[in-house]
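in:
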């Protein structure tokens, strides 16, 4: 009975996460670029996340990053926060929320493909077919030119940015997997977001200061 209860709560939590993530597409599209440019939006987002994660981790037992893992944390900040979010918000600013959300479905496919290249995953015939179908769908969306320019300034470029964002996040997931087994998850996230913020600062500082609060 407890297992069923835990499974129900896990599903409710995952549904809530996806609901918030879905709202993010619509809300972010609504405020960009009229009220805030993508770079400013990203910097505001990662600064808030850093405050939250570092504040929460103050209540947990502290630990240290081992020397051989520093590169993974830095690469995690680059691919999982900076490149991922810059490409996503730049892409969303140019395309539609529907296109962006559909292309993001390619993330698991890219995780599998990158994992195979990194020798952490094995690709079967069924998985290979799934990769081809996913890649084909992403290409069809990227080449779509029928959207009104008033709603999507450059859907082809925007779709490409969102796809590159999905690829960047896939690289991050492959890099971060060993860290999640070795360290406490909140510890990993706080350091990844700290390094990510350092990478984002040069791209978002000017747009952040231009916000008309």
């Amino acid at each position: 009975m407890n297992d069923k209860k835990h499974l129900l709560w896990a599903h409710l939590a995952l549904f809530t996460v996806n609901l918030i993530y879905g709202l993010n597409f619509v809300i972010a599209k609504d405020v960009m670029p009229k009220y805030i440019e993508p770079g400013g939006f990203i910097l505001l987002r990662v600064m808030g996340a850093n405050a939250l994660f570092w504040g929460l981790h103050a209540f947990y037992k502290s630990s240290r990053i081992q020397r051989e893992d520093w590169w993974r944390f830095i690469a995690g900040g680059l691919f999982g926060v900076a490149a991922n979010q810059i490409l996503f918000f730049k892409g969303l600013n140019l395309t539609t929320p529907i296109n962006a959300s559909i292309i993001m479905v390619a993330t698991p496919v890219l995780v599998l493909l990158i994992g195979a290249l990194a020798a952490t995953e094995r690709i079967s015939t069924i998985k290979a077919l799934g990769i081809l179908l996913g890649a084909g769908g992403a290409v069809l969306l990227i080449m779509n030119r029928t959207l009104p320019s008033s709603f999507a300034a450059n859907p082809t470029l925007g779709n490409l940015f969102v796809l590159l964002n999905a690829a960047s996040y896939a690289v991050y997931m492959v890099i971060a997997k060993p860290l999640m087994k070795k360290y406490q998850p909140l510890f990993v996230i706080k350091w990844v977001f700290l390094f990510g913020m350092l990478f984002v600062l040069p791209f978002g500082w000017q747009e952040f200061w231009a916000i008309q609060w």
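note: The two ends are 51 Å apart (CA to CA).
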